Amino acid sequence: MLRKILLTSVMALAGLGMAAPVMAQDGPLRIEITDGVIEPMPFAIAAFHDEGGAGQYLQQVQQLIAADLTGTGLFREIPASAHIARPASFDAPVSYEDWKAINAQALITGAVSVQGGKVVVKFRLFDVFSGQPLGDGMQFDASTGNWRRAAHKAADQVYARLTGESPYFDSRVTFVQETGPKDARMKRIGIMDYDGANVKYLTDDSALVLKPRFSPDGSRILFTSYASGFPKAMMMDVNSLGTRSLGEQPGMSFSPRFSPDGRWIVYSLEQNGNTDIYQMDAASGAQRPLTNAPSIETSPSYSPDGRQIVFESDRSGSPQLYIMGANGGEPKRISFGDGRYGTPVWSPRGDMIAFTRQVGGKFHIGVMRTDGSEEKMLTESFLDEGPSWAPNGRVVMFTRVTPGGDGQPRLHSVDITGRNMRPVQFNGAASDPDWGPLLP
Amino acid sequence: MKTIVKLAAIGALLTIAACSRPGSQGGPLVNDPYAGMNGAGAGAVGTGTLPGTAEYFKANVGDTVLFQLDQSTLTPEARTTLANQAGWLNQNQGFSAVIEGHADEQGTREYNLALGARRASSVQEYLISQGVQAGRLRTVSYGKERPLEICSTEDCFMKNRRAVTALRSGAGM
């Protein structure tokens, strides 16, 4: 597992002239995501120090921290070839002038060692132009097999201090890997780091599986399986891979999702051709309908306080987004644009809802306020669908499908400004991403 | 039709072994549900299937009905096909059927699952109204997961918006 240690004592030893950790948040070096960053903030990573046996990890840790940061589109790394000097050791004072000269606004220093089968990563962050550290130095260690987590944790700290947002790099995504031709596709549930590393498969491809979704703590995955020949909502334990059906309802059950406290599961249940939203007590299995209409009600997603549910319904004649109380009741429509809206997901920050919108022969991933205002399209393509929020509610991952008989689904991510869209580094066809929680 | 049946029966004796495919209980029974939908007479002689077989059902009765965009109501053509399906099912009590509802790829995965279920249910209700016992019919939706045609234009989409009556041996589900 992963441990983190504050390096305040180390800082005192370093002779940086500070008796206490500096909270350099007055007039802080800060980049605002919602401002729509046009020019990424330049930063430098001073070559990390090998504090014993770092080997390959010395470079790999640095490169991963840089990749996490530049992957956000908010930061630009100044290459090492431009650096003038680096601190003599991890604890040596920083010569701010050397970094000002190359216009690095933020500086990351660090050290890597391998001790007793653990990779130890230390870092500090500096505001170059104000000439002071940004927060405490920190140390993370992880088993060598988990070295990426230690690097992600360090990058998460840098990201959080420079943006004021919650971190999200040390997180995982569950998804569906797809193989075979479009009319006989085989699918299996996978899990991977947010950046596409450490892919593992949790099911074989003997049964069609759809829409995996993490429990709030990431230990379980809800999904839909055709293993019985008919679609059924299932739950799997991520570690043991033990899988069970969520009750034996008549009709098909699909699209299950946990409440934020993990106590409830909402899902779609079809009976005699009509689909409504049901709620199940995750512990007892007791279930009850939350909607009761002849129209299609599906894709439920809880607000982060667990009090409301956003879902999709075609009761108006075309699929639109609605919000109802967590116990059901009269829903309020929140989408009013042209076309069709679906797959709404409530941001973990509570401020926005991401969705799929189909209009004018194109698909979009969009976001809106929870009252339906400030609707904004983030993407456009032949087929984009199924957004899932990063744990900090500032990025969504979704499926983009290319057209045609050999069309393939690929995972992409986009930030809420819509400016930074990129494919997820995964070698192959994949769909239905669900972004899990920030790991502890 | 009687003449056709007799001719078909002769051929069937020669080819029936070749028609029984191993593993056909599992997935969809048909590769091309449109085979024999038009001008079924000549096709029946050529394929040489017995009238009481699943092969005959798909080739001569037609196992597939199509739907308009976003619709689950049955077209007049679909009703004609389904009336024939019901007639066949009423005559061949040794079969039950799983009605598969499908959607084209325009639409989200979840909505299309629900839409496919509506379509399958429309077919089920119609067959029951034509005298098929409810206990012999079951529905499943594949949403957009199992397109028949794989291009991304209306030519293919219209063939993918379908419900397929897939026969199973045995009178009940």
What this model shows, in words?
Chain A: Keywords: Cell cycle, Cell division, Periplasm, Signal. Chain A: Its main location: periplasm. Chain A: Part of the Tol-Pal system, which plays a role in outer membrane invagination during cell division and is important for maintaining outer membrane integrity. The complex is a heterodimer of chains A (440) and B (173). Chain A has helices spanning 8-13, 56-70, 96-100, 147-163; strands at 3-6, 41-45, 49-50, 75-77, 106-115, 118-127, 132-133, 138-143, 171-179, 186-193, 200-201, 209-214, 220-225, 232-237, 243-245, 253-258, 264-271, 274-281, 287-289, 297-302, 308-313, 320-325, 328-333, 340-346, 352-359, 362-369, 376-377, 383-389, 395-401, 409-415, 421-423, 429-438. Chain A is mainly β. Chain A folds into two domains: 3-163, TolB, N-terminal domain (Rossmann fold, 3-Layer(aba) Sandwich); 171-438, TolB, C-terminal domain (Neuraminidase), CATH 2.120.10.30. In chain A, strands 1, 2, 3, 4, 5, 6, 7 and 8 form an eight-stranded mixed beta sheet that branches. In chain A, a hairpin with a 5-residue loop joins β30 (409-415) and β31 (421-423). Chain B is of the alpha+beta class and 173 residues long. Helices cover 45% and strands 15% of the residues of chain B. Chain B is built from six helices and four strands, in the order αααβαβαβαβ. Chain B has helices at 2-19, 40-47, 54-61, 76-91, 109-129, 154-160; strands at residues 64-66, 95-102, 137-143, 162-169. In chain B, α1 crosses α2 (40-47) and α2 (40-47) packs antiparallel against α3. The model of chain B is unreliable at 1-46 (pLDDT under 50). The chains are: A mainly beta (440), B alpha+beta (173). Chain A binds chain B through residues 181-185, 208, 210-211, 229-231, 251-252, 254-255, 268, 270, 272-275, 296, 298-299, 312, 314, 318-319, 340, 342-343, 356, 358, 382-383, 385-386, 401, 403-405, 407, 431-432, and chain B through 70, 72, 98, 105-111, 113-115, 117-118, 120-122, 124-125, 138-141, 145-152.
